[in-house]
Amino acid sequence: MALTRPELRDLLTQYRRQNWEGIQTAEWQRKIVDGMLHEDDDDGQPALLNRIAAHWTLPRDPIILDLGSGVGNFVVACRQRGLRAFGVEPDRIGNGSSLTSLQIAGKRLDSCAFAAAIGEQLPFRDATFDLVAMNQVIEHVNDQESILTEALRVVKPDGAVYIACPNYLRFYEPHYKLWFLPLMPKRLGAWYLRIRGRDPVLLYQLNYTTNWKLRRLLRNRRQRIVDLNGETFVAKSGAGAAAFASRKARIVARLIATPALGKMVLWIALFYIRLREGGSEILALGEA
């Protein structure tokens, strides 16, 4: 029996409180639970699929793996739209809790769509999935090369691997929701978090990621690597300055449109995005 919305909210609230106490404020936990209850785009398509649609076409009757599926939002959204989606989750985030994300996910679907597994040792045959998604996952694993190797092993040759994670060149830590020095040494970061009244337990579970690091790890593993943040900027620039809300971005878009400076300004803008973008978002594509 699927959970009602109030039942799901209660479980998510309990789960967040147990795992994130001392890491995030109660106000942030409420905001995140609200966001998890309203994750899909307005058109009913899972937001992740909309994000990659311009660069890769989901094949007919696809098989999808959510690697690090958490409480199951993406898998549930896909299943509700008739897509065969599965999730794996080790559930070792933050403080740990008596209520696990896998337990919540299992209550949301009648089918056996979720399994307990680690990304470094996936229990699937080679070339099983059309799409493998790792959304806010890779920064939580110790061996990032191994998890990418496994993701690429289980995806089909013409399939896609989607990776989204924080970019730790930013002056912000997105889990603690605090100002943070880029790539701050863990010992210094733990001291800083304690001063701010936060528990550094999660910090020691994080593996700092950057846009460049992801691109390096994926180099020569797939035929094409798409930097989705950069591609979004290029597309908006092509639409003209009016496509940007920021005054600075509109100025940059106008400079890109000038024949003399356009290529150089675009290169500088993409360099800046890769350096400072708050989140890294990469799509690794195989054979066309």
Q: What secondary-structure arrangement, pairings included, does this model have?
A:
Elements: H1 5-20, H2 26-37, H3 47-52, E1 63-67, H4 73-80, E2 84-88, H5 101-108, E3 114-115, E4 129-135, H6 144-154, E5 155-166, H7 186-195, H8 211-218, E6 224-227, H9 228-239, H10 247-256, H11 262-276, E7 279-285
User: What sort of overall outline do the alpha carbons produce when their principal axes are compared?
Assistant: globular
User: So, CATH architecture?
Assistant: 3-Layer(aba) Sandwich
Predict the CATH topology.
Rossmann fold
Strand content is 5-15%
Main-sheet strand order equals 3-2-1-4-5-7-6
Which percent bin holds the helix content?
A: 40-55%
Key words describing this protein structure:
288 residues; single chain; globular; Rossmann fold; alpha/beta; seven-stranded mixed β-sheet; 11 helices
Kindly describe this structure:
The chain is of the alpha/beta class and 288 residues long. It has one domain: Rossmann fold, CATH 3.40.50.150. The chain is built from eleven helices and seven strands. It has a seven-stranded mixed sheet, sandwiched between helices. Strand 2 (84-88), helix 5 (101-108) and strand 3 (114-115) form a beta-alpha-beta unit. Helix 1 packs antiparallel against helix 2 (26-37). The protein is globular and about 60 Å long. It starts with a helix and ends with a strand. The mean pLDDT is 89.
